[in-house]
Design goal:
alpha+beta; 26% helix; single chain; Cytidine Deaminase, domain 2; 5-stranded mixed sheet; 24% strand
Length: 126
């Protein structure tokens, strides 16, 4: 999955930050879908690689993500932003494996629950 995320980072459009990110999600049906970050001169319209991959999966009919890999062109792997964590929580449980990779051979494995404890979900009680 990290190889697919690394390949996706090559397509990132990041002329403002220079921070290229690639992501790959696996759906409950086994499909592997990738995404890259796409920046915009109106910076609030920028979208992260993780959300591109999730939204692409949803657009193809998926409603469950079983794993995600995120690659950043950095010496240490980077974690997803808060917005991406919340989007992942919509389509995955706390035990979602999150693989993080960067320009070294180091691969970090964590879970969505570790990154976003007590996530707000559809079944959240008020």
């Amino acid at each position: 999955m990290l190889d697919a995320a690394r390949d996706a980072a090559d397509f990132a459009y990041a002329p403002f930050s220079g921070f290229s990110v690639g992501s790959a999600v696996r759906t409950s049906t086994g499909e592997l879908l990738t995404g890259c970050n796409v920046e915009n001169s109106s910076y609030g319209l920028t979208i992260c690689a993780e959300r591109v991959a999730v939204f692409r999966a949803v657009a193809m009919g998926a409603r469950s993500i079983t794993a995600i890999a995120i690659f950043t062109r950095t010496s240490e792997p980077s974690t997803p932003c808060g917005a991406c964590r919340q989007v992942l929580a919509e389509f995955a449980g706390d035990d979602l494996p999150v693989y993080l990779g960067g320009d070294t051979d180091e691969v970090l494995l964590t879970t969505l629950g570790a990154l976003l404890p007590r996530a707000f979900r559809l079944d959240h009680e008020a």
